[in-house]
Amino acid sequence: MxxxxxxxxxxxxxTPKSVEFMQEKIGSWDFINLDRIKxxxxxxxxxxxxxxxxxxxxxxxxxxxVLAAMCENINIQSSLISxxxxxxxxxxxxxxxxxxxxxxxxxxxxxxxxxxAQHTHSHSDLNEIDPSAGDEALDWPIIKLDNGEALQAxxxxxxxxxxxxxxxxxxxxxxxxxxxRWGVVGTIKMQFEDYRALGWQRFLSTGPLAILPLTDxxxxxxxxxxxxxxxxxxxxxxxxxxxxxxxAMTLEEVDLQYxxxxxxxxxxxxxxxxxxxxxxxxxxxxxxxxNYPLPVTELIPGSRARFPLKLSHADTYMAPRIALVGDAxxxxxxxxxxxxxxxxxDVGHLVQALEKGVDRGMDxxxxxxxxxxxxxxxxxxxxxxxxCDKLHKIFAVQWTPFxxxxxxxxxxxxxxxxxxxxxxxxxxxx
Amino acid sequence: xxxxTSSRHILRSxxxxxxxxxxxxxxxxxxxxxxxxxxxxxxxAHFSRLSAQWWDERGEFGMLHKMNPVRTQFxxxxxxxxxxxxxxxxxxxxxxxxxxxxxxxxxxxxxxSESLTRLGANTLGIDASASNxxxxxLHASNDPALSFTSSxxxxxxxxxxxxxxKGKLTYEHTSVEDLLAREGPNSFDVVCSMEVVExxxxxxxxxxxxxxxxxxxxxxxxxxxxxTPLAYFLTIFSAEQLLRFVTPGTHTWSxxxxxxxxxxxxxxxxxxxSLSSPSSGEIEVxxxxxxxxxx
Lengths: 430, 295
Prior knowledge:
- The complex is a heterodimer.
- By secondary structure, chain A is an alpha+beta fold.
- Chain A is built from twelve helices and 19 strands.
- Chain A has helices at residues 16-26, 73-94, 165-169, 227-235, 241-250, 253-265, 271-281, 285-291, 339-359, 367-395, 400-415, 417-427; strands spanning 11-14, 38-40, 42-47, 50-58, 68-72, 108-112, 124-125, 142-145, 150-152, 156-158, 174-190, 198-204, 207-213, 218-225, 296-299, 305-314, 318-319, 322-324, 330-331.
- In chain A, the strands form four sheets. In chain A, strands 3, 4, 11, 12, 13, 14, 15, 16 and 19 form a nine-stranded mixed β-sheet that branches. A four-stranded mixed β-sheet of chain A has the order 6-8-9-7.
- The longest helix of chain A is centred in the C-terminal third of the chain and has 29 residues, at 367-395.
- By secondary structure, chain B is of the alpha/beta class.
- Chain B has one domain: Vaccinia Virus protein VP39 (Rossmann fold, 3-Layer(aba) Sandwich), CATH 3.40.50.
- Helices cover 41% and strands 17% of the residues of chain B.
- Chain B contains nine helices and nine strands.
- In chain B, strands 1, 2, 3, 4, 5, 6, 7, 8 and 9 form a nine-stranded mixed β-sheet that branches.
- In chain B, helix 7 (203-212) links the parallel strand 6 (188-194) and strand 7 (214-225).
- Chain B starts with 7 loop residues before the first strand and ends with a strand.
- The A-B interface holds A 96, 125, 127, 129-131, 133-136, 138-139, 154, 356-363, 366-368 and B 57, 65-66, 68-70, 72-73, 76, 94, 114-119, 138, 141-145, 148, 165.
């Protein structure tokens, strides 16, 4: 299947560790469409209230020379489906085990604990073995589907997102808060392909704005903003929007406030275009070329979307016969591009725990197996969640003395190579 | 967190039991004349009272739940090691237990028997406590993957062909002596008795039966608690008396056996046999002390 011509707006940044996981462990990377992967070498981050306070992260410390890879969700999804098909073909050849079954266009309508259920169910077991033997009902959770079927599972893995029904079924508490911010995303084209292969991030007081490279002259942006600003960003005329992005990466915050105000009165007011180019013209050209992303020239029509930003972390990722992975276990501010990578790391740890359990003849739904997963996955996730939360909060402050202090901190950090290397290694999962 | 040694366990594997096997046959009359069963009624009453708690991973037998994966891994690794020593280089390590007839003597709630079965062994778990067997059977019947057969009707073990790649699990309320009398010697590829020998009367007779029911060239795995001050402190003073993790009376200090005692027992069996039958094969006794990592 050929990918759509324009980039889809659901894009993620894959760390070298995640790529390695897909290559070595899952083996799905063989099926990835490499024409739609953009490896980039570093990030240039700067303060919205003090453009000279900058920090750069480079991939040289990860050993590969690459900081991360930009990849569409749809690319990952189709590579995984191809991998499952390949594995199923092998299983059929060997006449062992059972192939993986994918049920699409099917919803889970209910999850039941058979020991607490009021009624008896006619259910089919995942292993297709009659579970009716025994004096006691099987304690495996029953998953009822909207097509009338029911499945009973030794281990139910909840990869079912922020509102995880599996997590609710298991009565696992999840703690966190809404940031009162929205993430606005979209696909754009830059003036031309940038040989620098860099991501750019500016910490505005309304939230960080990032432009990340895709192949050729394509790029994607994530603009964390207040609810009012997010609403405006979705409404702004598609011709004006690219210039607004360039302005937001470059101009002073007071200039931006003025432009926002004009657009709030009329999101199609093209006089803003002249205003922006006049303000940009006062900037030093060599500084612009060196320290800022290329001008944005085009917004792919209809590619803008928004989602609420929140932080949450489940108290644990397991219950008897239950494991949680990905957003069901934790949601994170997108500013460091860690969400999907944390999910991949969860899966890696879970698989490791299950392999160990199988090796030792254990019941893989037992908490004795799953506690290994939680012990390995939870603490590092908690650290990344905390770090990203603190970054968000530090840059949301506009109080001038603090801005100077912050600038001093960033410049100091930027000059401390080893601390920075440590941060890059943590973020890139190395 | 790494806690210290919970108990000193010795796990041993006896290789090429051919000699031991002949020895044991000669001694059978002696063993059976002295005592028909090594089962201690007080011990059985004690464990029967606790049987409902076998599968509570955080309860009375929590430490066994933590140890069980380690024991299973040890057995698998040793079998793999032996297969390589015997020159089977094209071995599929994951399937080393597949199709083997394994006896778990003193299976309790069936923790170890279930693990062996998942690794492909055709397992018979026996226990002198009827309530242990009831709990073990109930638990196994709740896992469809175990192809568990109830032994409420006495049946010849291993008579039916098992599902390809999957072990069959059977439980029976009996003692190793009675099983030996019924099935005869040379019946099992692997015999395991984990944390049992410290609970029986007349361990010599018990161990002799365990060795005798084993096929020539089979493997005998034993684990127990060594009679060291540390083991007393951890398993009796701390676990039973101080912290009450374990019901007081579970362990008896004087019944603990040291690795050297077990090793010399099997060496004596061996040497008495080589005196009487010089043509017999070799027996290899390997003792190993394990520190169990907790938490």
